[in-house]
Amino acid sequence: MKKKKKKLHASNRRGMRIIALAVLVLFAVFSYKTMGLKQQVKANKKTIEKYKQDLKKLKEEKQEIENMKKYTDTDAYIEQQAREKFGLVYKDEVIFQADEEQ
Fold first, then answer.
1. For a disulfide at 88, which of 27, 29, 58, 82, Cβ 3.0-4.6 Å?
2. d(Cα 84, Cα 74) in Å, to the nearest integer?
3. 63-89: per-residue pLDDT in tens?
4. Looking at the domain assignment, is residue 39 inside a domain?
5. Number of folded domains that form the chain
């Protein structure tokens, strides 16, 4: 009877060791995967921050374009372009130009 009990105890110990080993292996795998996921989350946060900065810049550019569009619809802009590009002046306006020194 003692032999049977010893055999049972040895068998139980072996089974417990196998189970403990399996649990350790699973723990190691889960730890490794968790570290990988943490790195991926960190990289994703950096990407999101970059996209937020890009979005902010694009919103600023959009606002500038809208402001420029409003300005180009004004008479002041049309007058400015006529003066700069075509040299147009009012009838009673006199333009003085400085001689270029050489």
1. 82
2. 16
3. 999 999 999 999 999 989 988 888 888
4. yes
5. 1
